[in-house]
Design a protein that fits this description.
By secondary structure, the chain is an alpha+beta fold. The protein contains two helices and three strands. The longest helix is centred in the middle third of the chain and has 16 residues.
């Protein structure tokens, strides 16, 4: 069963660290981490070791404004 996660952390952008908060739909925390790594790798060309996650928590899907989360939990 899929769940919604809120991931907070930073990634290296040039010489600075850029903060991010992202809502993710995944089966478990490992799947959410894999999505974060692949997303920043493809969009920003960031290696996995430069993506630092400070917190990851399961959220109620109704709290999210991310279209992917809304679509995944539409009734």
């Amino acid at each position: 069963m899929v769940k919604a996660f809120r991931v907070v952390g930073t990634f290296r952008s040039g010489v600075k660290n850029q903060p991010f908060t992202m809502d993710v739909v995944a089966d478990d925390k490992d799947g959410a981490m894999e999505y974060i790594y692949s997303n920043f790798g493809s969009r920003h060309g960031v290696k996995r070791r430069f993506v630092v996650v400070s917190s990851m928590s399961e959220i109620d899907p109704s709290e999210s404004t991310d279209p992917r989360v809304i679509s995944a939990f539409r009734k």
